[in-house]
Design a protein that fits this description.
Layout: H1 2-16, E1 56-71, H2 81-96, E2 102-106, H3 114-134, E3 142-146, H4 159-165, E4 167-181
Parallel strand pairs: 2-3
Antiparallel strand pairs: 1-4, 2-4
Signal peptide: 1-22
Pfam family, one: OmpA
Domain OmpA-like: 59-176
Length: 182
Amino acid sequence: MRITHTLLLAAVLVSAAGCAEAPFSGCPAKTAPVATPAPAPAPTPAPMPAPIAPVQKTILESKPITITGINFKLNSYKLLSHDIQVLDEVAAFAEKHPDAVLNVNGYCSKVGSYAYNLKLSQQRAESVAQYLEQHGVARDRMVLKGHSYEDPIASNTTPQGRFQNQRVEINSTIKVEKTVTE
């Protein structure tokens, strides 16, 4: 019985070694089992770059300007006393902003014909331009236009509304510095 146990024990050992073929004449593979190589470790990711600090820069931005408060009596292009203060402020503005072009726009109330009011609105713009030129604003910095009774800002049915429409508006655009973050 001892021989049976010995043969059984030998069979278990041969089987555990990878050769389980009977009658135990040796391992037919005649090579040792090959171990599978372990997978290569995954590469570590590159470190994240440090955040870039925001960059501030100064740009020039266009800013529209409209100057109002220059009004006229009915059928007149003569400047009124309160117009002088406004026009002095316009002259100071033009001196402070030497690159600004002044668009001088004359308007009328809707009393009379379109053609009559067109001529009167042009004369109003010219009256303002002459004052500004006498106070240091170069003529080539002004663009004059009469609009007749177009673009009213008030009703033409009342004297107060007509007075508001009998006006000159000065429009301009200036460049202002603005800081932006990128």
